[in-house]
Amino acid sequence: MRSFLGRDILSLKDFERNEFFRIFEVAKELEPIARNRRNVELLKEKTLVTAFYQPSTRTRLAHEAAMIRLGGQVTGFSDAKMTRAGDWYQESIKDTVKMLEYYGDVIVMRHFRQGAPHEAAKWASVPIINGGDGWGEHPTQILTDLYTVLTEKGRLDGLKWLAVGDMRMRTMHSLAYGLTQFDCPITFVSPPDMALTEEFKAEISQYSLDYKEVDHVEKAIGDADVILVEPVVQPDYTKSRQEAGEHGLTPSNYKITRELLEKKAKPDAILLHSLPRMDEIPPDVDITRWSRYWQEAFNGVVMRMALLALVLGAME
Ligand code: CP
User: Ligand 1 mean position to 56 CA, how many Å?
Assistant: First the structure.
């Protein structure tokens, strides 16, 4: 297995099966620290730099919380408008990262441009963690989701997945790449104009992902062990920011209601949503046996603790 020390976490396409399991082992080992709300000294001499060119609640704060739990320091920006990258100068990724690498030991970057963290990784002498790049990927979120499934179901292989939402989403790409390493058939449900591209389908077929597409959640929910949902009503992820405005409602094809779960879902299926949500999962689903998104949120901190500990060499 390749070492994680100094490694960039840019894409789940890079990950081998045994590397997933090593990350999950480390997460399990570190989990009691977060569970017991303790802070330890594992990374006490290290600093995380956050470089967020797009809004975030969970990804940035979960990385920051993870670093603090492990005794490290945090610096960075959550609004590029207040940096030279977001003002008149439009400072380049290269010039920005060549500064940030001196301010800390690892950088987590979210950007509206697909491939921006990969470009940062070309120039930085410290590891870059991709916190979401345009429509590209969101590897730490899907590592969190796979870990949540493992902890909730006790296994990954043999489980059937249903993914509902906008297939242009970065999470969907990381999910498809991640599942190529497991025996997990998946059904995708999306509006036709948000479907997986032919190019992406050719790529995941090459990696032997067992997938199909259907047009309504009702046609697939009964078989699913894991239901992962993303909005179909959402902003353009290639923009740095979009203000709230008029928007439509989620059509029933892409909506998981309490009634649908009660009528059609397996009693032991689990429902994931990385959030934020619109109306695709109404709040009355929160208190049902299927919902696991609050566990997923907790695991988001645990997973970032594991990744920081590994790339900074505190765990092998
Ligand atoms: N799931 C997720 O990436 O949330 P944020 O956009 O709040 O980081």
Answer: 5
Query: pLDDT tens-digit profile of 12-58?
Result: 998 999 999 999 999 999 999 999 999 999 999 999 999 999 999 99
Mutate to test the pocket of ligand 1, among 145, 229, 275 (most ligand atoms within 8 A of CB): 275
Whole-number average pLDDT of the chain: 97
Nearest atom, ligand 1, residue 110 CA: 8
Helix (H, G, I), strand (E, B) or coil at 246: coil
Comma-separated ranges of CATH 3.40.50.1370 domains in the chain: 12-137+299-311, 139-297
Atom nearest to 132 CA in ligand 1:
3
Can you tell me the distance from the alpha carbon of 150 to that of 106, in angstroms, rounded to the nearest whole number? 27
Residue 93, pLDDT > 90, answer yes
Just give the CATH number of 12-137+299-311.
3.40.50.1370
Ligand 1 site, residue 57, Cβ cutoff 6 A:
yes
pLDDT at 255 over 90: yes
HSE (CB half, 13 Å, CA atoms) of 116?
A: 26
Q: State which fold the 139-297 domain adopts.
A: Rossmann fold (3.40.50)
User: Please, are residues 7 and 127 in contact by the beta-carbon 8 Å criterion?
Assistant: yes
Distance between Cα 263 and ligand 1 center (Å): 30
**3-class DSSP assignment, residue 73:** strand
What's the 276 CA to ligand 1 centre distance in angstroms? 7
- Across residues 145-155, what is the average pLDDT? 98
**What are the percentages of helix, strand and coil residues in the chain, rounded to 5?**
40, 15, 45
Atom nearest to 60 CA in ligand 1: 8
Q: Does the beta carbon of 274 sit less than 6 angstroms from any atom of ligand 1? A: yes
Quick check: 245 pLDDT over 90?
no
E strand or H helix that includes residue 259: helix 258-264
Please give the distance, rounded to the nearest whole angstrom, from the Cα atom of residue 58 to the centre of ligand 1: 5
